[in-house]
What we know:
The protein is α+β, with helices and mostly antiparallel strands.
Amino acid sequence: xxxxxxxxxxxxxxxxxxxxxxxxxxxxxxxxxxxxxxxxxxxxxxxxxxxxxxxxxxxxxxxxxxxxxxxxxxxxxxxxxxxxxxxxxxxxxxxxxxxxxxxxxxxxxxxxxxxxxxxxxxxxxxxxxxxxxxxxxxxxxxxxxxxxxxxxxxxxxxxxxxxxxxxxxxxxxxxxxxxxxxxxxxxxxxxxxxxxxxxxxxxxxxxxxxxxxxxxxxxxxxxxxxxxxxxxxxxxxxxxxxxxxxxxxxxxxxxxxxxxxxxxxxxxxxxxxxxxxxxxxxxxxxxxxxxxxxxxxxxxxxxxxxxxxxxxxxxxxxxxxxxxxxxxxxxxxxxxxxxxxxxxxxxxxxxxxxxxxxxxxxxxxxxxxxxxxxxxxxxxxxxxxxxxxxxxxxxxxxxxxxxxxxxxxxxxxxxxxxxxxxxxxxxxxxxxxxxxxxxxxxxxxxxxxxxxxxxxxxxxxxxxxxxxxxxxxxxxxxxxxxxxxxxxxxxxxxxxxxxxxxxxxxxxxxxxxxxxxxxxxxxxxxxxxxxxxxxxxxxxxxxxxxxxxxxxxxxxxxxxxxxxxxxxxxxxxxxxxxxxxxxxxxxxxxxxxxxxxxxxxxxxxxxxxxxxxxxxxxxxxxxxxxxxxxxxxxxxxxxxxxxxxxxxxxxxxxxxxxxxxxxxxxxxxxxxxxxxxxxxxxxxxxxxxxxxxxxxxxxxxxxxxxxxxxxxxxxxxxxxxxxxxxxxxxxxxxxxxxxxxxxxxxxxxxxxxxxxxxxxxxxxxxxxxxxxxxxxxxxxxxxxxxxxxxxxxxxxxxxxxxxxxxxxxxxxxxxxxxxxxxxxxxxxxxxxxxxxxxxxxxxxxxxxxxxxxxxxxxxxxxxxxxxxxxxxxxxxxxxxxxxxxxxxxxxxxxxxxxxxxxxxxxxxxxxxxxxxxxxxxxxxxxxxxxxxxxxxxxxxxxxxxxxxxxxxxxxxxxxxxxxxxxxxxxxxxxxxxxxxxxxxxxxxxxxxxxxxxxxxxxxxxxxxxxxxxxxxxxxxxxxxxxxxxxxxxxxxxxxxxxxxxxxxxxxxxxxxxxxxxxxxxxxxxxxxxxxxxxxxxxxxxxxxxxxxxxxxxxxxxxxxxxxxxxxxxxxxxxxxxxxxxxxxxxxxxxxxxxxxxxxxxxxxxxxxxxxxxxxxxxxxxxxxxxxxxxxxxxxxxxxxxxxxxxxxxxxxxxxxxxxxxxxxxxxxxxxxxxxxxxxxxxxxxxxxxxxxxxxxxxxxxxxxxxxxxxxxxxxxxxxxxxxxxxxxxxxxxxxxxxxxxxxxxxxxxxxxxxxxxxxxxxxxxxxxxxxxxxxxxxxxxxxxxxxxxxxxxxxxxxxxxxxxxxxxxxxxxxxxxxxxxxxxxxxxxxxxxxxxxxxxxxxxxxxxxxxxxxxxxxxxxxxxxxxxxxxxxxxxxxxxxxxxxxxxxxxxxxxxxxxxxxxxxxxxxxxxxxxxxxx
Length: 1463
């Protein structure tokens, strides 16, 4: 740039000379000679060399604006034009040369005006020009001393400066330093240069004014800049800024040296250098952000303009165009601030001359400079200031211009005070795709084009280590990261704030410390651990101490922060130590947040608050003590009625009881059942017979678990006491009845041996009893009667001597009086009065079973409360009773409760298990399940099950036990509770479906369905415990479960009600039966009650509800015939485990149509059937132990039927071949012993006939039956359709033996006939000699042969062919001797009858006739019937076989003759 300026100066001088030489004199009045002494750019003071460009451009612009020259106007209207002669001379930056050149220019006749281009010599130059009396214009001088020293008369100055005072040049930057709070600024200046020195002196004054410490460094020897000057600055560690007043070359040297020294300085303010893009380019990036004063910028607002140059931008464009024309396009450039100042100085000269003479008459001057400026006589001015030079000076001083340079106005010393000095800063940019470093105006702000970057980035920022940061001021040392901050990387400009959930308690941290486990901070920058608070879902035992937080306890809500856990709904915890929570049972009593539901209080919300009482596990507001007492009484009465009247008599009721008890236990699991289904399960507890269902807290507020336990354990005892009282009342009524009737009979002369010290009349009573019940020992040869007499109550009563029942006549009189009282008659309607001592024993045993049965029905409740006494749980480090949460475990109260509970467990629960695992197996082994005493006492344990599954009660008992144990002792794991119970219920269901143990089909199906629903409920409970279950699903599933439960309970309740209706209806029918039987003096029909179970209820109800008297008589006859078969004590009853019972059950179960077959065929066919099944029974049934190899063992079940059909039709040769094949096969498989075993098995033969023959005969008989009974109607009316499976076996046996021959050989001689005193005739020739009695097949209900059984039964039938005529059940022939031959010696087939109007004989309670009229013989009609009809039970058609047809004809003829069968 310097070379360009030098070359440009020479070219400009030549151009000016050519311009002057070529100007015609006619174009300008005269020439104004202007002189400029400058220092070329190549010189030491070349920083201001560009001012000459400004002067030259001014002259160029003047020629454009006013081609005739500079116009000067006077008051006459004349304008005189002055040409410009601009002379520029280089002083070589030498002061002496400068002085000599100035002296030459100010000499007379030389230069008229001097333009200053180098402020370095401004003072001497100004003085020389002033001395010459010429106008002196300074373009770039800012030193006020130049003007104050020159202008001796302020206001009348001849030297003027366009550039403002240099004191203002640093004002803005110093103020910014103050804003930046710089503490120390180094001021370096070149002392040999007045302009530069003055500028820095002014800067130091400004620093002092702003209280900023300054470091003054001045130099005179420029060679010391890189040594002493730089060292002086570098020696001060905390220099914030540097103000350097020095030539640009010196500034470049110093800046480079400081860069070498890596001296960090925040701001460089250089008087010279940064304004010049060429200088910046030489420094490159070192020039970035350097700042400098600038009197002008091309970006000045357009408000600053003039008519000569226009705006700053206009000036800039014009100047650039001019430089392109002068230097060439390659050298085109913008004006420097100094050039602009020079152009502004030329403009001031232009305006000063143009208007200086407007008040003067210049006619005399002729427009000549010599006259105009130097000859006052030619200038005539109105103000008399005719000195032209003085007049121009005064006019300049008075100017106030707005120019492209800014405002121009001069103070009294001639220095421009109106202009604003700006500050430029160098920024890196690109110009024409080339890097450039261009100064931009940054101050004042109103004119700035860029923001002032201060402090400038530190080029020498130290790399701060981790834990520190670059200072906010890059020029300061690294700063340690404060508490709450950290920096883990080096050289970072800032410290990171510790993120949330961390903290930093020390300075200089390289990393933040994580908050303890599960803690967080609410904000960043935590400085202590104590601000770490628990995050949501966690808690601290000592919040606010910085300790780690713990997982929120199960079943609680943790809000985080400093809060302690809060209990979930359904869970309980202590507010003071809420660190463990316990499941409330039921869940709804705990509402969460340490609160109990309304009405509940205490630990675990277990108790009711005052004014509330507990009912079905819920607290209800008290509504009156009387109402509570009434509820309690109703509950206990309900328990009593259920156990006495329903539990044992209705099969389906036990199903619903078992189902509800299991549900009540499930409700005790820690499953969060919704309130609706939980309440439903609670009400199911009613059938668990839990005494704590209703608790009298309204009456006794302290009522609690101990009271419930004691009450539950006392309940069976209370039941026993009630039964004892009931038995006592019954016994008392029985005694009153007995004594009263004895007294009445005594009045009629009767003697019953009941007097004091007497004994029964053995012959009379024995015969009369046997005639009805039969003495088994006497009537069944070869069989000993059981010790207890079986069902034949009269046997033991008649054959034993009784001690005196009443020894004092006073007691007898009392009973006699009571017998006729109203109270007795009222009680007799309520209490069933036994008719005999045997019946009393039955009643006694039956009622004793009620407390035993109650042990089973109340087992769940008793076990729950008893086991609950032992269960403790840890509550905040202390062991408490779970079901009595306020009581510590192993306290004196707890020990007492455990002792009471132990007693209950041993006495009740243990007693029940002993009955199940001890008594049941014993009865099974002894085959005594059907005996009277076990049946009455313990029948409730097994009478609902098939005989082979008599022990099955252990399954539901074990199931209930397991449920209760899981409920009480596995509280902490609901899933285990539910899963184990699900498995157990599944096993119970499989066992039930596999065994079909329950006899009643409806009860069996309902029980299986109930277990399936229990499993479903358990599965729903498991699913509801899944935390991933979508919201609302649990509620839906629980509703489904509730609906299913309700439907099942409705179904079961319907079945119970239906059975109850049947029972009640049957009771009504039994009452009718009793009323009808009493007409025949048969007062006791109770023993026939089992006949009412022999037929399906609907069939029997429809039959007997519309029955006539004759129908009732027939039904009564049927009862007499069948009672000992259908009675549960029969050997063929469904309870019998004897072989004969098993055989008949197998037969009727797989082939129920056998009943229809036996009820249809004649005696011969039944005999053939008996022979066939006798062989099956004796030789083939249940022979696995004796015959280890049998054909049925190796034939698959699915192919047994085809195999059987083949064998039934095989010829003899085929059978022989079959035997051979099987023997060989078994030999291959099992060896020789196997072959022998199968041969022995196949060699079994029925005595007297082969198996095959029997099979062929049975086949033929079946074919015949099919032909006779092949229509559909016969199937619809089949007898087995109306008989429960449990009664098919005894009924089939009865059909098999009734009306059959008395022996296997077909003899019709009765066992008691004279021909057969021993009870049987010898076998006829051609028979096996084996009787049914010997084989055991046809044994009666107690083991007697079918013939003997039939004979015994025929004694008491109206179709008897014996001479014994039945007058009343139990009456013996000796009691009827008074009836005469008609009654005693009747011919076979005769029937003794009573006319319709005849009084029936009176019987005692045992059935003995005690009073009667003379019994007539058979009526005439009866005799006629007798003569016409064959004897019942004999061969009516002469074929030698007594058949049902013969008997039917007898009955028909008897009815036709007017005779009436009497029972």
